[in-house]
Amino acid sequence: MKLLIFLALFSGLQAFADPLTESLEAVSSGPSPYVCNEDLSFYSDDPVGVPDNSSRVAYDATVFPFNMGTRPVGFEIHMKGPNAMVGNPIDPAERVTRDWRFVSKNGSRRETYISLTDDAGSGKLSQLMESVIVLIPRKGRPHIERVGDQNIVTLTTGEQVVFNALTNTIVSGVLTEKPIDLNPDRFNRKFAQVSYTGTGISIRADKRGEEPRLITTTATVTQQGKNCQVPAADLWVNPSTAFKFNNDENLLKYLNIKCPGKFKL
Fold first, then answer.
1. 23-56 burial by CB neighbour count: b if 16+ within 10 A, else e?
2. Does the first or last residue of the chain, that is N or C, have fewer Cβ atoms within 10 Å of its Cβ?
């Protein structure tokens, strides 16, 4: 099912630029010395506490800040065409869309990620192509700024991606995208063809029509052309979906145990 997030239109969006703090270390209760297996769904492990009077900027209506309860947790960029990324929908009555959600729930490292949904216009929730991407290092909350006809997104790594504010397609930066796959065969349809080209580490999980973080197979870890597969269950808590590592160095140690010598910060 498509990720259920309550969207709220505001007159502006709180700009998140404060560095992430870390008040709790990962608690080890399993075989790995680097993995927290505790259910984290009922508390925030490392809140930032950004004041409510932070600077606010007005945005195009196609860029939505969204809420989890009453607390702002990030922003969404909704791309619906017409543009070079969008073709004809599978069902002519539907629309082809790509939704970006830049999340930092409670300012927690474990809840800072990108959620990405490609909708080929089938009209069926079970055919939504869902992806979750965690970028390392996690230096700060993602934030967005409107400058002329561009939306400039600063990622948790501190790197930037520039979106065209009219089409909501990527213009430049450390994320690249290809057109949405409109293959009528859902089993052969590709997940969002989005790549991270920055200097950090990308951890990605994909699932059609369901929560990607709860897959029973593997997540893909990449850094500048180097790739490795690791069990998704080692990275996310089931069923809360919280990321198991709030410490980037501990995460790096784990990754290099699974994939010797491949990754660095």
1. ebebeeeeebebbbbbebeeebbbebebeeeeee
2. N
pLDDT lower than 50: segments of the chain: 1-62
H or E segment to which residue 253 belongs: helix 248-258
CA distance 195 to 217: 21
**pTM for the whole thing?**
0.78
Between vectors from CA 131 to CA 153 and to CA 38, what angle results, nearest 5°? 100
Tens digit of each residue's pLDDT (9 = 90 or more) over 32-86: 333 333 333 222 334 333 222 233 332 333 456 666 555 568 899 999 978 999 9
Q: For residue 155, what are its two tokens?
A: 């990622």
List beta partners, residue 176.
195
**Contact predicate 218/228, CB 8 Å:** no
Show the tokens assigned to 176. 């690249």
Tally helices (H) and strands (E) across the chain. Answer: 1, 17
